[in-house]
Write a structure and sequence with these properties.
heterodimer; A: mainly alpha; 6 helices; about 80% helix; about 0% strand; B: mainly alpha; about 75% helix
Chain lengths: ~130, ~140
C-alpha cells in the first residue's frame, strides 16, 4: 500500500519538477547554468527538512510520509537531472559552472538542516532519530 | 500530453526507487547509512547517460520517450533523501560523505553515455551487416 502512496506522490512531484524546471531559465538542453534544477533541488531539500521536523512531532503517519516525502519530494528532487546538466556544462567547456553546480550538494544539506530547525528548532537536530 | 507522460513516468520511477531502496537496505542488513539511496542515484545517473546517447543528444526535454526518461529517471533518483536518512540516524559526521555522491554520479553518467554510444553504433553496424548478408542472398 505504501508503494501506491509513493507512486501517487511521485506523479505529483515529478510533474512539479518538470513544470518548474522548464519554466525557469537553464533547463536541460540550455547551455546556461541549470538554475531550474538548482532551485528545485534546494527547495526540495528544505521541504524534506521541514517534513522531518514535523515527523518528530508525530504529525505524519507512515502513509503520509510515503506520499509526501518519499513520493512527492523524492520525485520532485532529482539526482539524474543534476548529473545530466553537469555533463552538459562540462561538454560545453563550462568547468567553473560544473563546480558551481556541485554546490547543490552542500547547499542542499544546509537547506535540510534549516528546514528542520524552522519546524522543530535546534532540538530537531539534537534529538533526531 | 507531455505532462501526463512525465507524471506516469515519475510515478513508476518513485515506486521503483522505494522498492529498490528497501530491498538494498534489507539485503545489506539494514546499515545505518543510506546505501539504498546511493545505489538508486548512481544507477539512475548511469541510465540517464544511456538515455542521453540513445536519444541522440541535446535537447532532451522535447516530447516522446525522452520525456518519459526524464520523468522515470527524475522520479527514480532523488537529491536530499540521503541527508534525511543520515539525520534520522543521527550520523551527522557521515553527511560529508554524501558530498561524494555528486562526483560519483558524474562518473556514472559519463559511463552511461559511453555505454549508450556503443549500443547505438553496435545496433547500427549489426543492422547493416544483417541487411547486407540477407540482401546478398536474396539477390543471388
Amino acid at each position: 500500500m505504501n508503494t501506491l502512496y509513493v507512486a501517487l506522490g511521485g506523479a505529483i512531484g515529478g510533474t512539479a519538477r518538470y513544470v518548474i524546471d522548464t519554466s525557469i531559465l537553464g533547463s536541460a538542453g540550455n547551455p546556461n547554468f541549470p538554475l531550474g534544477m538548482f532551485i528545485v533541488n534546494i527547495t526540495g531539500a528544505f521541504l524534506i527538512g521541514v517534513a522531518f521536523g514535523m515527523s518528530q512531532k508525530d504529525i505524519l503517519s507512515t502513509g503520509a510520509w510515503a506520499f509526501l516525502v518519499i513520493g512527492i519530494l523524492g520525485a520532485y528532487t532529482s539526482f539524474s537531472d543534476f548529473t545530466l546538466e553537469s555533463l552538459e556544462l562540462f561538454t560545453h567547456g563550462e568547468y567553473g559552472e560544473v563546480l558551481l553546480n556541485l554546490l547543490t550538494g552542500p547547499v542542499g544539506i544546509i537547506a535540510v538542516f534549516l528546514g528542520v530547525i524552522l519546524t522543530s528548532g535546534l532540538r530537531g537536530i539534537r534529538d533526531a532519530g | 500530453m507531455s505532462y501526463l507522460l512525465v507524471a506516469l513516468g515519475a510515478a513508476l520511477g518513485a515506486a521503483a526507487r522505494y522498492l529498490l531502496d528497501n530491498w538494498t537496505q534489507a539485503l545489506a542488513g539494514k546499515p545505518d547509512f543510506p546505501l539504498g539511496t546511493f545505489v538508486v542515484n548512481i544507477t539512475g545517473a548511469f541510465l540517464v547517460g544511456i538515455a542521453f546517447s540513445l536519444s541522440g543528444g541535446w535537447p532532451i526535454t522535447t516530447g516522446g520517450w525522452q520525456v518519459v526518461a526524464i520523468g522515470v529517471l527524475g522520479g527514480y533518483t532523488t537529491f536530499s533523501q540521503d541527508t534525511l536518512e543520515l539525520l534520522a540516524g543521527r550520523k551527522y559526521g557521515l553527511v560529508f560523505l554524501n558530498l561524494l555522491t555528486g562526483p560519483a554520479g558524474l562518473i556514472a553518467v559519463v559511463l552511461g553515455v559511453v555505454v549508450g554510444q556503443s549500443l547505438v553504433t553496435c545496433r547500427v553496424s549489426k543492422t547493416f551487416r544483417f541487411g547486407a548478408f540477407y540482401g546478398h542472398h536474396l539477390l543471388l
